[in-house]
Specification:
heterodimer; A: alpha+beta; Heat Shock Protein 90; 2 domains; five-stranded mixed sheet; two-stranded antiparallel ribbon; 10 helices; 7 strands; 65% helix; B: alpha/beta; Rossmann fold; Arc Repressor Mutant, subunit A; five-stranded parallel sheet; 5 strands; phosphoprotein (chain B)
């Protein structure tokens, strides 16, 4: 840009050389300004050389060239010698010291342009006005850009750090899981106290694996929607019944209220397993997600419910199961059905997604 | 007796699996600790079943699966994974693995799985069944002109039962089917998944003009 305004300055001054009272001095000034331009481009190129001293010198040269104009040309001069060349120093100040720098440089340049003039016409006024507006605005935009660049850099650094942490966590988790699984296996083979140790290792292994899966599906909990799969995993891990959760893979983002009610209903199913299916019973939870509905199946391998017992309980006014499972799901506009057989008991909870 | 190759980067596991398999009368023809070694030793040892840990240091479990099956389509890959990373498991199954087991499975379960996979059967965990159901659900909810196969109602029903921990025997009893029929249905779901994966790849190739060859 400096090159363009310098060419413009040199060209204009050459074109109107007859306006000069002292052409030789005028030529010397133009040459000096051109040389300073080359020097300034080189000096500004390296960040380390962009010192306040350089900026002050840059502006001082501009102001000096402006100040000598009435003497070198005539007091009735039309355009100053530097003309639009002042832009270089003005923008340098705006870039370096933002809107304050832009404003200070603009005011100084405007003053040096207006003061020596005998009369101010509309063109002079327009130029000064543009300088006064342009300096601070360019400065302000530079500040914004620099801030945005800083923020972007920080965000990129944070993302890279998080990615690296995740990678390390994966490696650590995998190692821990391997050892837990191995302890479980060896313990079961050795029997006795070792079997108990193995069983404990197995429990830890299951909860760690479930935690990792929850972490995998955590990302976008946006707009009041939360991940049903992760919530089911978290609840099942904490539940005393031995539960295995199967999910469709990835996050199942559903309205937070639907998630909390569905999870509560599934918890009631599992409580029921703990109460009726005996100590050794296991349960399985399967979550499925379609475009317009979610389905959660809960099965246990207990002896099953005697057909009609639920109805009988309802008739006797013992509505525990009905209100905590069926009630919750019906509130959400869904259906809860239960089947039972030699293979255990299975609840199927279906909730429409509005 | 099944000829088995064990691929796992943890020596502790490799040895344990090898010992269990040998104790059960199987022949461990090769071991490897990463994808590169596995691919180098696979052709010469020609195993019937590869017991493969997905978490290899060169992150190549899925790639190793497809390369092995490309080289020898009669080989069977049984995934043995500690953390059960969902995406990787599903990708490995799409690439042609026919069994998946978590490492906490007992020795008996592992040996049973190796024998079944060698016989051409599929070994599912409830977690894998859930993933496969989810995958077909995503296909169903996708664009209507999707050429990929859907599951039949029966297949979906059976897969749901596998996902809630029911054994083939229990499923057969509940649906009044033979054990063999249940097995076939489960096998079909995997076959469809793998076929769909090929369709997808082919379509991708056509879309990118890779089917025309050098002009």
């Amino acid at each position: 840009m400096r090159v363009v305004v310098t060419l413009n300055m040199v060209g204009l001054n050459a074109y109107r050389r007859d306006n000069f009272d002292h052409p030789t001095v005028g030529l010397a000034i133009v040459v000096a300004l051109a040389v300073w331009t080359g020097l300034a481009i080189w000096l500004y190129h390296d960040r380390a050389r962009r010192t306040p001293a350089l900026l002050l010198a840059d502006l001082a040269i501009v102001l000096a060239a402006m100040a000598v104009t009435p003497w070198v040309k005539s007091t009735e001069f039309n355009a100053t010698i530097p003309g639009f060349w002042v832009m270089g120093a003005l923008l340098a100040w705006a870039i370096h010291w933002h809107w304050r720098g832009g404003l200070v440089a603009a005011v100084l340049i405007a003053a040096s342009d207006l003061l020596p003039r005998s009369e101010v016409d509309q063109g002079n006024y327009g130029n000064v006005f543009l300088i006064l507006i342009g300096g601070p605005i360019v400065g302000f935009m530079c500040a914004s850009l620099q801030r945005m660049a800083r923020e972007r850099d920080a965000a990129e650094r944070a993302a890279a750090a998080a990615e690296e942490r995740t990678r390390l966590a994966r490696a650590v988790h995998d190692g821990v899981l391997q050892v837990l699984a191995m302890t479980q296996r060896r313990g079961a083979a050795a029997g006795g106290e070792w079997a108990e140790l193995g069983r404990l290792a197995g429990e830890q292994e299951r909860s760690l694996r479930s935690l990792i899966r929850q972490q995998d599906t955590v990302p976008a909990a946006a707009g009041g929607r939360v991940d049903l799969a992760g919530a089911l995993e978290a609840m099942a891990t904490a539940h005393p019944v031995r539960v295995e959760v199967a999910t469709p893979g990835g996050a199942v983002l559903v309205d937070a209220h639907v998630v909390s009610e569905t999870v509560a209903a599934v918890r009631a199913c599992l409580d029921n397993v703990a109460a009726h299916a005996g100590d050794g019973a296991s349960a399985w939870v399967l979550a499925q997600a379609g475009r317009d509905e979610i389905t959660v199946s809960v099965r246990d391998d207990g002896p099953g419910i005697d057909p009609g017992r639920l109805g009988q309980a309802a008739a006797e006014g013992r509505l525990g199961v009905v209100s905590s499972i069926t009630g919750r799901i019906e509130e959400l506009g869904g259906t809860a059905t239960v089947q039972s057989g030699s293979w255990g008991t299975e609840w199927e909870l279906t909730v429409p997604l509005a | 007796m099944v000829r088995v190759m064990v691929v796992d980067d943890h020596p502790m596991w490799r040895d344990a699996v090898e010992r269990d398999l040998q104790a059960a009368g199987h022949d461990v023809v090769a071991v490897a600790s990463n994808g590169r070694e596995a691919m180098a030793r696979f052709p010469a040892s020609a195993p019937q079943v590869v017991v493969l840990d997905l978490q290899l240091p060169d992150h190549s479990g899925v790639q190793v699966t497809s390369m092995m099956l490309e080289h020898d389509p009669t080989a069977r890959v049984l995934i043995l994974s500690a953390s059960g990373e969902q995406d990787d498991v599903l990708e490995a199954i799409k690439a042609g693995a026919t069994g998946y087991l978590v490492k906490s499975a007992s020795s008996a379960e592992l040996i049973d799985a190796v024998t079944r996979v060698a016989d051409g059967d599929t070994v599912f965990t409830p977690g894998l069944a859930g993933l496969v159901l989810g995958e077909f659900r995503r296909i169903a909810d996708g664009p209507a002109d999707d050429p990929r196969d859907q599951l039949t109602e029966r297949e979906t029903e059976i897969l749901k039962m596998v996902a809630t921990g029911m054994s083939y025997k229990q499923i057969a009893a509940r649906l009044v089917l033979s054990h063999r029929t249940v097995q076939n249905h489960v096998q079909n779901t995997l076959r469809k998944l793998q076929m769909n994966n090929r369709v997808q790849l082919t379509r991708w190739a056509i879309e990118h003009g890779l089917d025309e060859g050098p002009a």
